[in-house]
User: Fold this.
Amino acid sequence: MSGSLDMTDSPRTQETESVARGRETVACLEHVTKIFEKTPAVDDLNLEIYEGEFFSLLGPSGCGKTTSLRILGGFEEPTSGRILLGGRDVTYQAPYHRDVNTVFQSYALFPHLDVFENVAFGLRRQRLNKAEIARRVGSLLEIVDLPSYEKRRASQLSGGQQQRVALARALVNEPKLLLLDEPMSALDAKLRRQMQIELKRIQTQVGITFLYVTHDQEEAMTMSDRLAVMRNGKIEGIGSPRDVYDSPSTEFVATFLGASNLLTGEITNTEGPFATITLTDASTLSVPRERVPAMSGSKTVKVGVRPEKISIGASSASPPPGHNQLRGQVRVSTFTGVGNQYLVDTASGVEVTVYAQNIGQELAPRSGENVTLTWPVEHTFAVRPMRGVDELLSEGE
Assistant:
């Protein structure tokens, strides 16, 4: 099943059997490793992608996401492992023998052809009749909202329009799987946001499985049915955007996918539905048991809460039932228009960030004021502390 870490020290993932129930597996990577100059770019990767879903590989540069896409597309051969498409082993098959198309960062449109001929290129190679080519190209140009652009050249199109033509060209052959390698990286921020909605609309309309590679968290969260967060060639968290965001599986996932407040503590009680985490100042926080990682040896964890989950109030306020509480002093109070952002120094020595929506009901705390921070226990999670480079290197000796 999806995931890539040794299960003796694996993070929690959000994968469940219900995700796959009744759905065909379109693509599967089994124990795939790719080594470049003795360095693994992809490290024992296991991943399943299901029919009709928009799946994203998300992570920083060098995490292995593009290499994984290239292996699926047939542009790289794995050092070890298997690639299955529709249940068929295609590990060593050339790209043109796979039922897969790819949209690259550069779009790679043919400059000497107009829009119609760019989209029709693959169909002409199949030697379809003119009527069928016209029908399929016209249908795709309608879907990508370029119905009257057939005779324009690529040089006459904007970046967003070129991307849509590249997408239509890749979809017109009706592949089982479409691979997209950061296709919006060259677009400006406003157009990128517009294209996120458009791309999801197109994928939903055509019903083809998309595998999207990006380092942009907003892109992955906006468009994906499921996503996987990668680091050092491995998957550290996988599931729906909401589940991976609300219940991150590792410290890296918590910090890479949005902002998190992480406080160091020790697991001091695991009886009942909630675990107790004792912080360095002896204050305690409760965490749902299912959001606490299985530990062996050290009981040290990072206990976390997202900034927008926290309420900020007067220092004399008492927490409602079922809430965690921290006391501190506001160091910075910033008005952002849609809300206020606070940096609060807590007794445990950790600075906590709070995002509060601007709903105009009460005065915002000012810098220097003592405050109480509260949030529902169910919004609390715990993760193992991230291992440093030195520790990772020592494990390989």
User: Anything to note?
Assistant: The two ends are 29 Å apart (CA to CA). The longest strand covers residues 323-335. Residues 140 and 168 are 6 Å apart (CA to CA). Confidence is low (pLDDT under 50) at residues 1-14, 389-397.
